[in-house]
Amino acid sequence: MTDGFILINKEEGKTSNDVVQEAKKILKVKKVGHLGTLDPIAEGLLILAINKATKFSSYFLESDKSYEVKLKLGQSTDTDDSSGKVIFESNINPSEKKIQENLFSFIGESMQKPPFFSALKYQGKPLYKYAREGQFIEKPARKIFIKKINNFEYDEKVCSFTVYCSKGTYIRSLARDLGEKLKCGAHMTSLRRVSQHNFNISESVNILEISKEKIIPIEKAFNNLNKIIINSEDSKKFINGVKNIYNNNFDNLYRILNNEGIFLGIGQIKENHLKHKQLV
Question: Out of 18, 39, 177, 234, which one is annotated catalytic?
């Protein structure tokens, strides 16, 4: 089986694309994509989609994530992490209580400005390329949602915590914004992605340990969705984009299987009609 997902524990120093290229060579497949960039400074869970699984990328890119984070207070950098140049230093030493209160104030919905050094594009070119040339392009603030922050610890100007957040949340920007709130500056020193979608770092493997036997079937990746089994006639309609009438299910997304147990794709029921959202 070469259609599905592999969970990689990316090591610090590698780009997400480095991992993709290694996976292609090891698995001897042409189509591999990662489902959410991890910067070289970051480590942890990187989900790879293999062959037909790449069609389902949007379901992962839209999903929530969690990270283990370390920040250093008292210094700001141009990249908002420890890989950049220090551009501001302060001797202000806020109390642990004040740090925690200000950090926890980010829980909920807020507007966040992306870092100047990011893969977001302006006129087709990534922002980090402009920044390396000394041209800092400011992107508009975007709506994010931080669901929870826990495991907070503080020692010697370094605080660590776990954050559960929506897609599009930049942890480097969170560090920068916390430093601004405290008026002492801050930058991210460590980042480890722990979970994404319904997958956890505990299920991941090192890139050198991957094999076709480690590929998770596409259907299994969506075990969080209820399944609907349809007959052969309805299967043809489903595949051809024709709506089927379904009166006994709530409006939602579902795993759709034929009566032989073969996974056909993700379907959506809306106003008692079933139609495919994504076919295998």
Answer: 39
